Structures are given as C-alpha cells and as structure tokens.
Amino acid sequence: MLTQESVQLELFKISNLQVLSGGARFNFVDLFSGIGGFRIPLEELGGRCLGYSEIDKNAIQVYRQNFIGHNNHYEIELGNIENIPELPEHTDLVVGGVPCQPWSVAGKLKGFEDPRGKLWFDVIRLLKANQPKSFIFENVRGLANPTNKQSFNYLLEQLTKINYCVKWQVINSYDFGVPQSRERVFIVGIRDDLENCDRYQFPQPLHYKPKLLDVIEDIKNCQPIDKAKLDPETLFGDQIPPSRNRFQKDDELNDFFVFSDLRNGHTTIHSWDLIRTTKREKLICLTILKNRRRKKYGDKDGNPLSLKDLAELIPQLRQEEIHQLINKKILRPVIDGANYKYEFVNSKNSSGINNIYRVFLPNSDMIPTLTATGTKDYIARETIYAECPEEYKKIFLQKIYRPGKIKPITAQDACRLQGFPQWFKFHENEYIAKKQFGNAVSISVVYHVAKNLIKALNFV
Asked: Which residues contact 24 (CB under 8 A, 6 or more apart)?
C-alpha cells in the first residue's frame, strides 16, 4: 500500500529526471484514472503521463496492463488522492473523472455530504499547491442540475479562487462520434496568469454520426434502411407526447422497442402482447393502463384500481375476467384497506418484462447511457421495415423477439460504444469489464475537449 511518505519519495525522484523536459508536448497527471479513458486521447495528442491515482484494484489492473511498462520509468502510481502530498513537478495538465455517485440521480444525491463528494476538496488542494497550467474534469449531468446548483456554484467559485479561469459545459457523447447518448459535465480551467486564459472554447459537435451497426461487431453485416415517412397523427393521434427526445422523430417509427406495461406508444411491447390473450383481455389491460394515473383513483404516479372502478369503465366486467389475467401473471391483487385492487405485475418501468427493458434495432442512432450498474437493454440482430405501427410491432415480435434474435450489450460492445481503440485490453471478467466501461469517460469527447485546450495553451 502506498503511503504519503513513499509517494513523496517517488515525487522527489521524478523531479530530478531530465527526460521530462523534452519529447512530449505537455505532461499530465491522471486523477481518478479508472481504466484510462482520459489517458488514451491525451497520449494521442502528444501528452506524457507523470502519474496516475486510482484506488479500485480491478481498474488498476486494467490500467497497468494497457499503459505501464512501456518505457515510462518516470511515471508513478500515486495511490489514494487523499494521501498525495503534491503533484509531480512539471505537471502542465490535471485530468480526472471525479467520483460521480454523490451527484447522480442513480445515487442518493448527497453531494458534498458524501465522502466521495468531498474528494473535490483534495483536487482543489493539489491544484492550489502546485498551480499546474490547466485542468479538465468530468462528472455526471446531475452535478449541473438545479438540485445541485448551490454546490456546483460553490465548486466553481473555489476553483476560481485558486487562480483559474473556469468554464463548463454539458456534452453529449453522441455529438462526438459514438452512438451513445451520454451527457456529462466537463469543467475546464486555465491558470489566470497565462496569456489568453479566458479564450478557451468548447468543441462544436461533429458531423459524423455513426449508428449502432457501424460500431457493434455482431451487427455490422446488417444493412441500413430508409424508413417510411408517416403522418404524426398516425403515430400519436391528437397529441405528440412531450417526453420524446432528440433521437425520436415525429414522422418516423422509433428505432427501438420498449417492454413495459406502464406506458403506451407505437413501439411499446406489453406483457399481453407476448402471450395468448383475447381482445377482451387486451381491452381490460389497456383500460387499466390509460386510467391508472387519474387523480380520482389516488395520488400516486400509478394507482391500482378496484373491480368497482373497472366496472365503471368496462361494460359487463366480471370478477372471473380479472382472475384470468391474474392467472396469466399480467395482473396481481393488492390490499387497500378492506378492499382488493388490481395492478400490473410488471409495475416498474426500468425492470421491463421477462428481464428485457428495451431492444434497439441495428439502424438506431444511439444506445442510452452505459452505466456501472448495467441496464436491461438489448440489440436486435436484424433490421426490419414497416409502413404502419401495427405492422411494425407484428414484424418485430415475429422476426426478432420470438426467434430470440437479440443480444445483450457485451463488454466488447461497451468498449466500442465508449470509443476505446481496438488494441485496448479490458478485464477478463465480463461483469467487471462492463462496470468499468460504464464508469469510464467517452474517449472522443476528451480528445476534442483537450485538443481545444492544447491549442489555447500553445503546447508544442
């Protein structure tokens, strides 16, 4: 285990190495280095890593097998950032993906109250003590959300107080050459005594927009299709849902299918679509789906309905019909006081149905954000074409879902979706590797953010 004293000794050795004065455009330190998402693009841009800091043993293993031992005898493992007394001499740039869980909606949003959130203070301590020329830090989109506005502003103020011109921007990886929608906050700082310190500009989105079939090895043989253009009324009826995102066009069928009993749309697959059900049973299920959010049935985001409630909505409804849907594991009873009410068995959106949440077609522009905890997202192995929503669902179920022509997102896929190069050797354990890529930074985003910084600083 590295102690503060051993790190101090290694730092002293580094400061006396003449090799640092030549051969590289700039020298950088890789904090919270993970598996090297910052390092790869910085080395491509001519940088030399003086040291890296990481505490996760599996991440360190991957980092070392990819980067350490290649004529970089001047580089040291800095260990836990809390034990680093100072940065190596000659450091021009400090980078890192500071732990994001305190600010993530997937976490508990404790911010600086979380020990991991307090690691920002160690970052500030090292910057203040050594005054490197610049820094680039990455974090989850939640850091800049209104919920964390006070903490985020405080962080920016502290970075400014230690003599840096600071700029930040939310960047989506999709805009920089990978088919993944991944929003992250990038914070860039330049020491304020340097010329043109305030002229840094974040990069503009690239024109290159690959699809899943361009990067996922198993589906590269799939041919892209020209989708049918449809009237929005055909897809949505009277009103286009406000929840649609930038990847969903109002005149085209979606490039993915969602398995959910809590929502409805032209590419939503329900549990009653997957097993044999009658038109009457489908009607009952759709009636529950359409009314479960009405305030008259309760204050929850989704409320169970009683037989009496349903009988007011469905003519001649019989208790036996509800029991049939319970036997088919589509509905389940819940006790509300002295009464029974009924809700869907699949009552959580992200849980999906049959352990599947979403299936993305090869022609899809993107996959949603890869996470350390993983998702229940799959990729179809074939493309399909249809000219109306009903036909689209039918073809999907017949040609893709029932024959099992779907694949989970593998570590190899995640590697490509994050923009890591072909030569990168990831962890041999599939679960660990996927978790590491979910925690990593997108290579291409760092490349372009750093490229503009190098240009602003005139590194040669």
From this structure: 46, 47, 48
CA–CA distance, 257 with 236 (Å, rounded to integer): 16
Answer yes or no: are the C-beta atoms of 137 and 159 closer than 8 Å. no
Question: Number of C-alpha atoms within 13 angstroms, CB side, residue 289?
Answer: 21
DSSP string, 393-423: HHHHIIIIITTT-EEEPPHHHHHHHTT--TT
- Structural contact between residues 32 and 68, judged by C-beta atoms closer than 8 angstroms: no
Q: Assign domain 271-349 to a CATH class.
A: mainly alpha
Low-confidence ranges of the chain (pLDDT < 70): 1-22, 70-74, 100-117, 460
Question: CA 268 to CA 99: how far, in whole Å?
Answer: 35
Spatial CA neighbour of 27 closest among 374, 454, 456: 454
Q: Which amino acid is at 206?
A: L
Q: What is the CATH number of domain 4-208+429-457?
A: 3.40.50.150
The CB-side HSE value for 255 (13 A sphere, CA atoms) comes to 23
Catalytic residue ranges? 100
* Domain boundaries defined on the chain: 4-208+429-457, 225-269+353-361+371-408, 271-349
The 10s digit of each residue's pLDDT in 201-232 is 999 999 999 999 999 999 999 988 888 888 88
Q: What is the pLDDT of residues 59-80, one digit of tens each?
A: 999 999 999 875 555 678 999 9
Q: How far is CA 185 from CA 47, 290, 365, in A?
A: 23, 37, 22
H or E segment to which residue 180 belongs: strand 180-181
Nearest CA-CA partner of 47 in 124, 125, 123, 136: 136
Closest CA to 446 of 198, 199, 187, 214: 187
- Is the distance from CB of 269 to CB of 423 less than 8 angstroms? no
Query: How many other C-beta atoms can be found within 10 angstroms of the C-beta atom of residue 324?
Result: 17
Residue recorded with tokens 């009636």:
287
CA distance 157 to 41: 28
How many Cα neighbours within 13 Å face the side chain of 206? 16
Contacts of 104 (CB under 8 A, 6+ apart): 140, 142
Alpha-carbon span 169 to 183, nearest angstrom: 10
